[in-house]
Specification:
single chain; 54 residues; mainly beta; two-stranded antiparallel sheet; globular
Amino acid sequence: MYVGVPNNIDSFDKFENNGITVYVKKGTPSVNGTLTITVGAFLWFEKLMVEGMI
């Protein structure tokens, strides 16, 4: 996972929610074609969590 906009943006799908933008490489294998991306927090740390990626 990288922070920032990818150089070859045409190779990625873009998803936005609550001010967060996530780029997922087109064709990324997933369970039933679904990825779930959530934000988790612990103390002062925040992280993106991805479920469903094969």
